[in-house]
Write a structure and sequence with these properties.
three-stranded antiparallel sheet; mainly alpha; 267 residues; 51% helix
């Protein structure tokens, strides 16, 4: 069945496995009564349960919390925070500013994009090694055809988040995962290939941990896209406390313009 018949079969009815609500009565969240059974659940635990349909242990939820906390920088100079802050400076609504900031968080090079590509790399590398392949050969083949996301950083080759993430993973017992160990091995291979600028960054290690937790790339994208969320509202709030339009104003004489000179307009 395809084409109009597919649409006709879905017309007028919602078939769902994730849940539904009955106003005035109750709500079901993935087969559980949201208020009766899940009412005391940690919010992030509920969030990833909604994404994956799996229940995670307390240690796993602590790890996922840590990943979000370590990436919540309240710095309005960062690309997504800047969008939210500029909305606050322009006196737009907080919801619009926050929504726009989340939207651009999915940047292809330095936002959520690298995380999705990194977990895809680790899942494919894990399958190749499990099938008897050599990780070094896989990495070299990958480098020959595309970029390995999660290694290298444009501003500074040292990622200040790793010294916090690694002890957290170790303390919770996640340092023995297949993809976690592979993340460090890939870094050793890259450094051996004389690529010192391709040191592991936060995107690689978090993607490897997510792979060990059973996330698919699509599921991880939904988790990963909000990892900077807590840093955005402070920037919006602070921008709203400044005079309107006072955030990052640019004087006209500081704009470098190399186009046509002044022209006279003819009616």
């Amino acid at each position: 069945m395809k084409g109009p018949e597919v649409l006709r079969s879905h017309a007028g009815v919602l078939r769902t496995r994730v849940g539904a609500c009955w106003p005035g009565s109750h709500a079901i969240f993935r087969g559980h009564d949201l208020h009766g059974e899940l009412g005391a659940m940690d919010w992030l635990e509920l969030y990833v349960f909604g994404i994956t349909g799996r229940r995670y242990s307390d240690q796993e939820i602590r790890l996922l919390h840590g990943i979000w906390v370590m990436t919540s920088y309240p710095d309005a100079r960062l690309w997504n925070n800047r969008v939210g802050a500029m909305a606050g400076s322009a006196r737009s609504s907080a919801v619009l500013g926050l929504s726009a900031a989340i939207a651009v968080t999915e940047a292809r090079i330095y936002g959520g994009g690298p995380g999705v590509r990194a977990i895809d790399f680790f899942l494919r590398a894990g399958k190749a090694v499990k099938a008897g392949g050599d990780l070094g050969a896989f990495v070299r083949a990958e480098l020959a055809s595309r970029r390995i996301y999660g290694y290298g950083r444009p501003i500074n080759t040292i990622d200040e988040r790793l010294p916090s993430l690694i002890p957290l993973a170790v303390s919770l017992g996640f340092d023995k995962g297949r993809h976690y160990e592979m993340a460090f091995e890939v870094e050793r291979i890259l450094l051996k290939e004389s690529k010192p600028f391709l040191r592991m960054n936060f995107a690689a290690l978090t993607a490897a941990l997510a792979a060990d937790l059973g996330f698919s790339p699509r599921q991880y994208q939904l988790f990963n896209i909000l990892k900077t969320l807590a840093g955005i509202p402070p920037c919006i709030v602070e921008a709203q406390c400044l005079p309107e339009g006072a955030l990052f104003p640019t004087p006209c004489d500081e704009i470098v313009y190399e186009g046509l000179g002044a022209r006279s307009w003819v009616r």
